[in-house]
Write a structure and sequence with these properties.
alpha+beta, Jelly Rolls, four-stranded antiparallel sheet, 34% strand, elongated
Length: 184
């Protein structure tokens, strides 16, 4: 095997590794659960399962009333709360949209578990509703805190401490260089 063949093999290896990285970085972390049109009877609600048993995710839902009442709403709740809703007991919701003809709901679920997305036709539900519902999960969204900026007081503290550290290192280095220059 000559030098040129070795270089050619090396180049192919580099290209294959680069393509593997490109594919890995472009891998989709978004999963579409549903993109359907649902018929919801009057004064009723419909639900879609959102199972997050392996990893928390951001749940995004968009809805549009195609025909029927003027307003519906969408709510995200735990499976246990849905069972309470079935039994006509008090229940909780994680997030709820405003009653409207169309809208969105986005909520970052922080815990693994079973959830449901409810399309509620009881708001203005004197007639059946035809609703186009899209639900997607995004696993790339961090489950940590949403805050991405520190307060102005902490910003000032970080800046002052960084400047003081830099000034200390620069002074120390300047003294050492000055002494080294003066020494015979």
């Amino acid at each position: 095997m000559g030098v040129f063949e070795g270089l050619r093999l090396f180049r192919r290896l580099v290209v294959m590794i680069a393509l593997a990285w490109i594919l890995l970085l472009n891998a989709s972390t978004k999963v579409e659960l549903t993109d359907e049109v649902y018929q919801i009877p009057r004064n009723e609600w419909w639900w879609v399962e959102v199972n997050l048993r392996q990893k928390p995710a951001q749940v995004s839902a968009t809805y549009e009333v195609k025909s029927g009442p003027r307003k519906v709403r969408v709510a995200l709740m735990t499976r246990e709360d849905k069972e309470r809703l079935d039994a006509d007991l008090p229940h909780g919701v994680l997030a709820v949209s405003e009653p409207a003809k169309s809208g969105t709901l986005t909520y970052r679920v922080r815990r693994r578990g079973d959830y449901v997305l409810i399309v509620d036709n009881r708001v203005d539900g004197n007639q059946p509703a035809t609703v186009h519902l899209r639900v997607a999960l995004d696993f790339a969204v961090s489950s940590g805190p949403e805050e991405t900026q520190i307060s102005p007081q902490r910003q000032l503290t970080v800046i002052v401490m960084s400047f003081a550290f830099f000034a200390g290192v620069a002074t120390y280095s300047a003294r050492r260089l000055w002494r080294a220059r003066r020494a015979p």
